[in-house]
Write a structure and sequence with these properties.
This protein has 196 residues and is α/β, with parallel strands linked by helices. It has a single domain, classed as Rossmann fold (3-Layer(aba) Sandwich). The strands form two sheets. Strands 2-5-1-6-7 form a five-stranded parallel beta sheet, sandwiched between helices. Strand 3 and strand 4 form a beta hairpin. Helix 1 crosses helix 7 and helix 4 runs antiparallel to helix 5. The longest helix is centred in the first third of the chain and has 13 residues. The N and C termini lie far apart (46 Å). The structure holds adenosine-5'-triphosphate and magnesium ion (MG).
Length: 196
């Protein structure tokens, strides 16, 4: 069996880590958590105080990821992180799953994590404006990018959908969410855009 490189991306709090763990156990795949790797192996250039996050050393990081992938034989590899697509050669990627979560639900997750106001709204804006989705499409092209809505669903169900897509029983699509449109219809667009 040839190993596949599967990317799981999305705004912080959508459920990448949780979904990837379940997916890995079903596929017997190896997981590379980009965020964890940066901290564990100190693959950063510094710390961004304002954003409360490490500034990744992307050159070292992509080399390290490449080596970790090369070490794996005949098992799928799941690379997890909101900027994972920029760290791999697009032609090596089998599929990119972009997890999406309705901003209201995402807000609850991020609030329960105690995110500071600024970081909270920065991430909500990224979700509403499809930042991860656009980056994935830009780097890998639309064909390989599959959007998966996790809103109101449990992670087992989400993993079931991902496996159906990988097995070709369900189609891989982008353009399934429209948070701007949804927020407008729900009369809460203003509540959001005033922070952006
Ligand atoms: N079964 C569940 N159904 C829905 N939401 C859940 C469930 N279990 C956990 N969550 C919520 O989903 C959140 C997001 O999970 P997770 O940590 O996997 O996101 P992430 O995308 O990996 O975030 P980050 O980018 O910060 O690593 C959890 O913090 C939790 O609040
Ligand atoms: Mg995570």
């Amino acid at each position: 069996m040839k190993k596949r490189i599967i990317v799981v991306t999305g705004t912080p709090g959508v459920g990448k880590t949780s979904v990837s763990r379940i997916l890995a156990s079903k596929l017997d795949a190896k997981v590379i958590e980009v965020g964890e790797l940066i901290e564990r192996e100190r693959l950063y250039l510094g710390f961004d105080e304002e954003r409360d996050t490490f500034i990744a050393d992307t050159d070292k990081l992509s080399q390290r990821i490449k080596r970790l992938i090369d070490e794996v034989n005949s098992r799928d590899v799941i690379v997890v992180g909101h900027f994972a697509v920029d760290l791999l050669s697009p032609e090596k990627i089998h599929k990119v799953f972009v997890l999406r979560r309705h901003p209201e639900e995402l807000k609850e997750v991020l609030e329960s994590r105690g995110y500071m106001e600024r970081k909270l709204w920065e991430n909500l804006a990224a979700e509403v404006l499809d930042v991860c989705l656009c980056e994935a499409v830009e780097s890998c092209g639309e064909k390989k990018v599959c959007e998966v809505d996790v809103t109101g669903r449990n992670f087992e169900e989400v993993v079931g959908e991902i496996i159906s897509i990988l097995e070709g029983r369900k189609s891989c699509k982008v353009g399934i969410t429209d948070w701007l449109g949804r927020l407008e219809a729900e009369g809460r667009l203003n509540e959001y855009t005033k922070h952006f």
